[in-house]
Amino acid sequence: MKKTNNNNVFYDPSLAKRHRKAKVFKGLALSALVISLLFLAIFLSDMVIKGKSAFLQTYIQVEVTYNESTVKSYRKAIERKYLNLVSRSDIRDIPLKMKHDPSLMGTKKLQWILADDQVDMYMKEKYYKLKSKDLKALKNLIENNRVEMRFNTLFFTQGDSKIAENSGLASAIIGSIFTLLVTMAVAFPIGVATAVYLEEFANPDSKWSSLIEININNLAAIPSILFGLLGLSIFINMFGLPRSSPLVGGLTLALMTLPIIIVSSRAALRSVPASIRQAGYGLGLTKIQVVRDHVLPLAFPGVMTGSIIGLAQAMGETAPLIIVGMIAFIPDSPSSIMDAATVMPAQIFTWAGMPEKAYIERTAAGILVLLSILISLNALAVYLRKKFEVKWQ
Question: How far does Cα 274 stand from its chain's mean position?
Fold first, then answer.
């Protein structure tokens, strides 16, 4: 009911009430956004604080002895007081160096050697376990400028290792690349072809089309771990494909990615104006020619965007790959899609369960690398969309 105020102007009390509710709703929505960004900032800052130290690694300079006793026992190549300060991975390779370079026999050299993870933790001012005599020897090396921090190239060149200071992401990165190549090689053509059929050729009122759409919607709602069980039962148990291989992992992720590609591709095809199709038919083109030469090129930016986003989601999945065995300890990089491999999310999951404190920073650093790749893929999707939109306008 309208009323008048002191200026004899009519106003509606219910309208003022709706305005107040709108302001409250807007405030709640803004608060939710701020809280979400706050949690994201806390997560990212925590990962950066914990993970940035993993990109640095400690090296110490010690005297290495090359003689017959060293050949029999690599532990005799280093002075006993420094033995617990150096990494086992480096001193174990000393006999191999002598084998490849016989001129080293009978010599002593000052060399920079990878430090033990406990030394690395001490240098980074984190929790460490060093005996008093080892700590005294380390401080002596520090005073003589024989300890230094270097960029941790091993993190990007080495595979997984039971020796914390020698572990890296190289094998997981290559395994992820192989797995995603298989995923896109299978999911992209099948997903786009399915979207084209459903959107351009199928009768939307037929039972067959309704059945396909129901199954696509059901696949999109299935938990990812069930795709792992499906991959285990079909690709490994039924077809006998090698367990833990990028081929099996890629095929499993392809099944999971298909609904995303189909839905995004259908939306892209639906966004093409009907006038484009009608103009083609008016010129006497067939249905296939209209779709191939006009509709698909215009829908391509949306198709690519959805496919890359689906690829990014597949790259971050761990549960289905655990079921097909890609969580195993894989120190070497795969040379083909048939070799045993692991992927970055699975590698991070493995490090998170390790008892050594040095793996905490490697877990955080691995998350940062994975996030960087995912952000890059999403940025690439936006860039390609903008580029092709300009091209086809």
Answer: 39
Helices (H), the chain: 13-51, 68-72, 88-91, 94-100, 117-123, 132-143, 154-157, 170-196, 207-221, 224-231, 246-270, 274-282, 287-290, 296-315, 319-323, 344-352, 358-392
- CB-neighbour burial class of residue 102 (10 A; exposed 0-12, middle 13-18, buried 19+): exposed
Q: How many CA atoms lie within 13 A of 347 on its CB side?
A: 32
Q: How many residues does the chain have?
A: 393
What averages of pLDDT result for each successive group of 10 residues across the chain (393 residues)? 53 74 90 93 91 93 86 82 88 83 83 91 90 91 92 91 90 92 92 90 82 82 86 90 90 90 90 87 87 87 85 84 83 88 90 89 92 86 73 49
Cβ neighbors of 39 (< 8 A, separation 6 or more) are none
Please report the pLDDT score of residue 10 as a whole number: 55
Nearest-10 Cα torsion for 319, 323, 326, 327: 70
pLDDT number for residue 58:
94
Largest CA distance in the chain: 109
Q: Could you tell me if 187 and 230 are in contact, meaning their C-beta atoms sit under 8 angstroms apart?
A: no
Q: Return the number of other C-beta atoms located less than 10 Å from residue 56's C-beta.
A: 15
Phi and psi, residue 65, nearest 5°: -105, 130
Asked if residues 347 and 167 have their Cβ atoms less than 8 Å apart, the reply is: no
Q: Which residues contact 312 (CB under 8 A, 6 or more apart)?
A: 374, 377, 378, 381
Using DSSP, state whether 243 is helix, strand or coil. Answer: coil
Q: What is the CB neighbour count within 10 angstroms for residue 380?
A: 15
Domains of the chain: 53-152 (no CATH), 170-392 (1.10.3720.10)
Spatial CA neighbour of 257 closest among 173, 209, 189, 324 = 189
Query: Which of the 8 DSSP states describes residue 53?
Result: G
DSSP string, 76-141: GGB-GGGGGGB-HHHHTTHHHHHHH-GGGTTEEEEEEEEBPHHHHHHHTTS-----HHHHHHHHHH
Which DSSP category does 11 fall into? E
